[in-house]
Amino acid sequence: MLYCPNPTCQTLNLEGTRICQQCHSPLPYRYLWAAGLTSPAPEAGRLLGDRYLSKGNGIFLDTLPGYPPIASIEELPDFLLAYLRLAALRLHIPLAYDLIPQDPTSGNANLLLLEEAALWQPERSVSSSKGNPSTVAVLPAITPLWEKVSGRRQLSWLWQIANLWEPMVREGVGSTLLTPELLRVEGCLLRILELRSDHPDQPATLAHLGQLWQTWQRSAQPDIAAFLNTLSAGLLEGRINSSIALIEELDQQIAIANRGKPRHIHIATQTDQGPTRSRNEDACYPASGTLQSEILQSGQPSSPLAIVCDGIGGHQGGDVASNLAIAAVYQKLQNLPVVTLSPEAIAYAIDESVAIANDRISQRNDDEQRQDRQRMGTTLVMGLIKHQELYVGHVGDSRAYWITPWGCHQITLDDDVASRQMRLGYNFYRQALQHPNAGSLVQALGMSGSSLLHPTVQRLLIDEDSVLLFCSDGLSDGDRVEEYWDTNLLPVLRGQADLVGVSQRLVELANTLNGHDNVTVAVVHYQVPDASADRELITNYMSSTLGDVPIPVAKEPQAVLSAPSPTTTPTATQVVAPTATVVEPAPRRPVPLFLSLVFATVLVGVLAYLLLPILRGAGFLASDPSPTSTPQPSPSSTAPSPLAPSAVIQVGRVNTSNPAPLGLFPQPQLGDAAGKSITPGTVLQVIEKPSIEGTPWLRVQVCSLGSESTAAPPPTEVASLTLVPQLGEEGWVQEAELLPRAMPVATEAIAGSPCGPTATPLSPQTPTPTPPPLG
């Protein structure tokens, strides 16, 4: 059962249901991987922390997705920091989600749960003939598929390992890339199941990598076998002594393998001001409503481009900033000679185009003497395609997604406070999101000089049919892409939807389920005509092994890597990584369990029938004259009412085109009392919750002000709500008015505010102040 994330509903829903049966809110499914198991995984059906349901084989489902993780850690353990610091590589490495204390008798230490892990759902894939909406499995390991796929796919996997090598070795987890059981594959995309720490006495080296790759050379396809033999020998002998040199060698061979292989590119864009905004501050390239199609050949100078910008500044000029950015980037990149440029030169050109756009907007701000919040700015996300290569650049919180035949993956990491807290190793991402300023941007175009701007540019290889989505937060907010990619974007890969219609439906989805902002999308269909054989092979293998994928169990202490010898060809038994133990799931006994539940239910019913009249007669229970409604179940122990006394909540928006303002009154009677308007984003703490003359009221204190509190309240029909409350002010609100807007946040959100007795940082390791929001 899955609890509805809507704090005013919290209805239990059967697993597999897409929307809440009571309030029709979307139900997010967060399937998690338990990392570092040193003994068999908890059997299917067991509930950990009153929240995480075991699906067997180390997979868990969060049954309370509307609440932050439950971990309470004064100091994050060292093994967790690598996950946080490598979050920018989320396309390959899962994110830390929660840490669950374990009973020492279970044989496991604290259980680390990972989201965006190497898992897949058959029902949410191109081939959905097997399984049901609640079926989830681990992706296959690289080893059994290695000898089956094409040489070009083998090169793609090696290239990704080479690009992950330097950052993972720097964080002390390079041994992960030497452990084939931890290297999972989703088509052409390499996914890491979990991280494994290097032995303190012998760090992972490129020679160890060469040793592993030399064992793979025996089953490599004939068109790359000789190359891989030379490459692994170069690693073993030290002739290739850096990951940069290794990537250069692979780049040259990949270019040869893709020679004469066309790519079909289709780009559709759409932008809309949304149902609640008076103007559209977003912009995109190509122009909204257009469809561009092109066939790319290797060595061709053409480089298709897609750009999405989300303006910041409202009436102050967000639309001006976004259009200035589009024009500057396009002007710099439209005639870029990609054929003659190295990958580093292309990445530099993208970085330079973003800097030019930033300087133009910043200069416009300076010319018009705009300061602080008056400065206009914009986010930017863009993709440039060079045959088999995709370059993604971004600043701000507009996002890029990669949709494969088996999953949807966020490529970019938002430039906001929550992401920064995670990357600095201060907190889990989901916990950092509870901070009132979690979504505040730490950088955007136009806010300062380019010397203070740090755009992110990524280079990816695409070797199979894919959909690339670039969008503003009007769509990505609320995890709408993660929830609806399979019904709106996957049909493109099935050949069941046209790109223009898909872009229009995404805008409609954003306006219906979010509706608070402008929305812009650029949808790219990237087709590889000769990759169908690899896709069919992998799809058939994944379907045939569903539920039978061996799961590695961590070994303690971890084995020391063997020292490779350049003169000795390693045998199959000399593979660098320690051998994983296959854990068979514990046998289930559904029939006895079912009979036990039936017996317990009957027994409870009989006792209730006999005891209820006695209890009512003794005055222990009050009689209910109209027992016609059945209360909805709620998670009493782990999901308290969001409006209980001492609860901390953030005021959100309601999905109506003209919402009534939320009033803060000096007394719990409306009458003619003058009230104040509580704007979205304001954080309140509930002091008491009385019922006055049959109407539930709440006495609250203002802990922090919303981003709109400094502006004059919008004109409304409630003439008395003409002021905004002050920080620390107490007052009364109607419970029925606050409930639809209430969003629970962590109590740390009021640290240092008038509601908190002492100032406490967001995390015990967080000494840095939170910057003011940029938009």
Defining traits:
20% strand; 6-stranded antiparallel β-sheet; disordered C terminus; alpha+beta; 775 residues; globular
State mean pLDDT (0 to 100 scale).
Answer: 81
- Principal-axes shape call: globular
> Could you give the count of β-strands?
31
Q: What's the number of helices?
A: 17
How much of the polypeptide forms β-strand, as a percent range? 15-25%
What is the subunit organization of this protein?
single chain
Order of strands across the biggest sheet?
4-5-6-3-8-7
The amount of helix comes to 25-40%
Cα Rg: 28 Å
Q: What would you call the structural class? A: alpha+beta
Terminal residue distance: 38 Å
For the biggest sheet, the summary is: 6 strands, antiparallel
List low-pLDDT spans.
Answer: 553-560, 566-598, 612-640, 708-720, 758-775
Describe the protein.
- The protein is an alpha+beta fold.
- The chain is built from 17 helices and 31 strands.
- Strands 4-5-6-3-8-7 form a 6-stranded antiparallel sheet, with helices on one face.
- Helix 3 packs antiparallel against helix 6.
- It is globular and about 85 Å long.
Give a quick rundown of the structure.
This protein is α+β, with helices and mostly antiparallel strands.
